[in-house]
């Protein structure tokens, strides 16, 4: 793993560069645009054609039956079900803390102002198929939506010749998914965004997918809300001179094994730690089942940056704004206020990133590629919308009428001013 040294400005220039995401490739944009158009025009017919073309599967019924979901649940080992139940318990208890109730402000005489929170009517969850099926992501997406009060949570996942992964079906059942449909790719995103004869239109689409899925989410945004357009996984680690090289290497590889474009990053003031971690990564790579993927990530995307002290390490990480940030130092909680930009933070030497992937409770659907500067993890608030309301009595309106008409006429909007003045005319009721 390459070790970067030099001035802080030089380090910043090296580690904050972002390559253009593959989801912007023109040929992919054009192909996805055609798929969306075809699904909008032909509905289920187009979906069946794409299932045969891309998934090599003939689909007669898109909706997965309750019996099939129950059979998938029963096919899972008790060990897996116990783990999923623990994840559900902790994800639920964490996200229940996010629930907001809106407000009413009636402090001014004759004036009532407020805000009510209304859950979205329907949310759609995309779940990749095959070896990329992650039951944990189903829990992370569906449980906050359920807590928010979303009445209809639907899940789409590519059809599989051997049937949908039982772990996926079990997670859907436990997380409270209301319906599962076997359809994948950009065509599934189009179906969720616009609806077909079989698949209902939703208000928001969430969940990871390949380049075609990510591009489709981007293209339907505006017709429907989306969680985010996520890039490859990232992990940033800030470590002091006492950090354990074997553990640091293991944590960095836990994200490197996701994707050849995943980005493992270590920032430390200790050159000795940097050298030890680099050597340890090479040792661990040789026994990793996904060695080819992880090695490409480490060699092409990963780095270890040497800073003059821990304060500079935090400054650098705030510029990077990583998806996951581990703080492996003494008294890590004392550094929490130094963190301005990160998706999810793991404090201390035992808070390894996979803890958050599965059972801790905080969400693992997180902003990537520096977007933690302005995006947040998925949560309950992502499934509600705010509705404002206001009520004024006649005396209360009279007190502010001249201000309204002055502003309206300043902006050249005479009808706005007259609408207010009409409340004070002789025949006003």
List the helices and strands and how they pair.
Elements: E1 3-4, H1 8-15, H2 26-42, H3 44-54, H4 66-75, H5 78-95, E2 103-105, E3 111-119, E4 122-126, H6 135-148, E5 152-157, H7 166-175, E6 179-182, H8 185-194, E7 204-206, H9 211-220, E8 225-226, E9 234-239, H10 245-256, E10 263-268, H11 271-285, H12 291-300, E11 303-306, H13 310-320, E12 324-328, E13 344-347, H14 353-358, E14 384-392, H15 394-410, H16 414-421
Parallel strand pairs: 1-11, 4-5, 4-7, 5-6, 7-8, 9-10, 9-12, 10-11, 12-13
Antiparallel strand pairs: 2-3, 3-14
Helix pairs in contact: 1-13, 2-3, 2-8, 2-9, 3-8, 4-7, 5-6, 5-7, 6-7, 8-9, 10-11, 15-16
Function: Catalyzes the sequential NAD-dependent oxidations of L-histidinol to L-histidinaldehyde and then to L-histidine.
GO biological process, one term: L-histidine biosynthetic process
Cofactor: Zn(2+)
Task: Describe this entry's structure for a reader.
- Substrate binds at residues 233, 255, 258, 324, 357, 411, 416.
- Belongs to the histidinol dehydrogenase family.
- It comes from Lacticaseibacillus manihotivorans DSM 13343 = JCM 12514.
- Keywords: Amino-acid biosynthesis, Histidine biosynthesis, Metal-binding, NAD, Oxidoreductase, Zinc.
- Its cofactor is Zn(2+).
- This protein is α/β, with parallel strands linked by helices and 429 residues long.
- It folds into 3 domains: 3-18 and 232-361, Nitrogenase molybdenum iron protein domain (Rossmann fold), CATH 3.40.50; 24-226, Rossmann fold (3-Layer(aba) Sandwich); 393-424, no CATH class.
- It contains 16 helices and 14 strands.
- The chain has helices at 8-15, 26-42, 44-54, 66-75, 78-95, 135-148, 166-175, 185-194, 211-220, 245-256, 271-285, 291-300, 310-320, 353-358, 394-410, 414-421, and strands at 3-4, 103-105, 111-119, 122-126, 152-157, 179-182, 204-206, 225-226, 234-239, 263-268, 303-306, 324-328, 344-347, 384-392.
- A 6-stranded parallel sheet has the order 1-11-10-9-12-13, with helices on both faces. A 5-stranded parallel sheet has the order 6-5-4-7-8, sandwiched between helices.
- Helix 4 (66-75) packs across helix 7 (166-175), helix 6 (135-148) runs parallel beside helix 7 and helix 8 packs parallel to helix 9.
- The protein is globular.
- It starts with a strand and ends in an 8-residue tail after the last helix.
């Amino acid at each position: 793993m390459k070790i970067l040294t030099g001035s802080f400005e030089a380090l910043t220039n090296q580690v904050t560069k972002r390559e253009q995401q593959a989801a912007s490739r023109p040929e992919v944009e054009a192909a996805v645009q055609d798929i969306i158009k075809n699904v909008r025009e032909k509905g289920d017919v187009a979906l069946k054609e794409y299932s045969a073309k891309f998934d090599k599967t003939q689909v007669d019924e898109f909706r997965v039956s309750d019996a099939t979901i129950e059979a998938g649940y029963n096919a899972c080992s008790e060990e897996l079900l116990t783990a999923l139940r623990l994840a559900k318990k902790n994800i639920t208890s964490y996200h229940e803390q996010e629930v907001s109730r809106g407000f009413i402000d009636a402090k001014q005489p004759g004036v009532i102002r407020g805000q009510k929170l209304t859950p979205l009517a329907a949310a759609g969850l995309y779940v990749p198929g095959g070896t990329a099926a992650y039951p944990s992501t189903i829990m992370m997406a569906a449980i906050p939506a359920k807590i928010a009060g979303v009445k209809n949570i639907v899940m789409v996942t590519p059809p599989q010749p051997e049937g949908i992964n039982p772990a996926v079906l079990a997670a859907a059942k436990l997380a409270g998914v209301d319906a599962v449909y076997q359809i994948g790719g950009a065509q599934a995103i189009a179906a969720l965004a616009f609806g077909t004869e079989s698949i209902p239109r939703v208000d928001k689409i969430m969940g990871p997918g390949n380049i075609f899925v990510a591009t489709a989410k981007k293209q339907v945004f505006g017709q429907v809300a989306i969680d985010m357009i996520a890039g490859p996984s990232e992990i940033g680690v800030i470590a002091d001179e006492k950090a354990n090289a074997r553990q640091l290497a293991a944590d960095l590889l836990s994200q490197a094994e996701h994707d050849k474009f995943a980005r493992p990053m270590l920032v430390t003031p200790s050159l000795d730690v940097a050298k030890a971690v680099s050597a340890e990564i090479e040792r661990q790579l040789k026994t990793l089942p996904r060695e080819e993927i992880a090695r490409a990530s480490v060699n092409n995307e990963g780095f270890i940056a040497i800073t003059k002290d821990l304060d500079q390490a935090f400054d650098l990480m705030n510029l990077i704004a990583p998806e996951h940030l581990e703080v492996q130092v003494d008294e890590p909680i004392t550094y929490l206020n130094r963190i301005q930009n990160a998706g999810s933070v793991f404090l201390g030497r035992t808070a390894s990133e996979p803890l958050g992937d599965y059972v801790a409770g905080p969400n693992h659907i997180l902003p990537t590629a520096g977007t933690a500067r302005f995006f947040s993890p998925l949560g309950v608030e992502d499934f509600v919308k705010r509705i404002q309301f206001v009520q004024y009595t006649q005396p209360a309106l009279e007190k502010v009428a001249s201000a309204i008409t002055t502003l309206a006429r300043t902006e050249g909007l005479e009808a706005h001013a007259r609408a207010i003045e009409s409340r004070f005319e002789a025949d006003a009721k």
